[in-house]
Amino acid sequence: MKNNKDIDISAVLKVLAYYDVFDYPLTFDEVFIFSQGFSEDQVATELKKLTEDSVVYKVRNFYSLKNDTERVINREQGNKRAKVFTRKAIKRAKLISKFPYVRAVFISGSFSKGYVTLDGDIDYFVITKHNRMWFARTVLILYKKVFLFNSRKFFCVNYFLGEKDLKIDQNNVFTATEIFTLMPIINKKVYKVLIEENQWAEEYYDFNKIKNQDIIEYKSTFFQTILESFFNNKIGEKLDLYCMKLTLKRWERKFPDLPKIDFNIAFKSTRNVSKHHPSNFQKKVLDSYNKTINNLRNV
Description:
The chain is of the alpha+beta class and 299 residues long. It folds into two domains: 4-67, Arc Repressor Mutant, subunit A (Orthogonal Bundle), CATH 1.10.10; 83-284, no CATH class. Helix content is 49%, strand content 12%. The strands form two sheets. Strands 6-3-4-5-8-7 form a six-stranded mixed beta sheet, sandwiched between helices. A two-stranded antiparallel ribbon has the order 1-2. A hairpin with a 2-residue loop joins strand 1 (57-59) and strand 2 (62-64). The longest helix has 29 residues, at 69-97.
């Protein structure tokens, strides 16, 4: 076996290392799509070399850093669950798009990659009207608490952006992956702007490899138009700011022991950006990914 110190951490190996964090083996097509700057022939050559050196293992039609059949079985089961939930996920996205000031709805997280765990949920990435994001978020959260009994399985709205603030400022492999794998459901125009505003992510992924997707055209409803007409004024401006301050204070009280630097990442809150990731999942993923990369270099 080749000494891992001699292994070049290519884009192919980095992709497999990233998904190793999630115990998620990849097909050849996925490795190709996720490998920035690699052609199909180059990916095939690289995988052949890595498997011969026992750095990468092929189990059935999947590639992984571990020779683990159970990973493959878990993945296949999770893929089947995602297919079963797809219709409901799209239906909920359509519902979310009908709320006041919502302008676009995408799906992120594991579901956007075609996978759902037994206890998993569906993460919605919501774009709102500029300077009405917190109003929209509050209405959606109230709906979830009152009418869905606070269930988040098919209604996890944990990331919001205002339509004029679509550039993600945390530029790393985690955020790049989430942008690249987004499943746009409502509003193709806004989705295209989001991709254009985050060209930095091409350091990690080739956006020319994104497959064309069917995206539902955004159309405002009569309910949206009427309700928004009551708040397109100074009252709406003050209400939006009030919702922001109230939510942020609640989070600060609920997570007093979270270090400030981690809090600002997990609960990023500006006028047109809202994240709600209590477990600070991004940091955990990046720490695990960097550890895997270092192990590949140093073992």
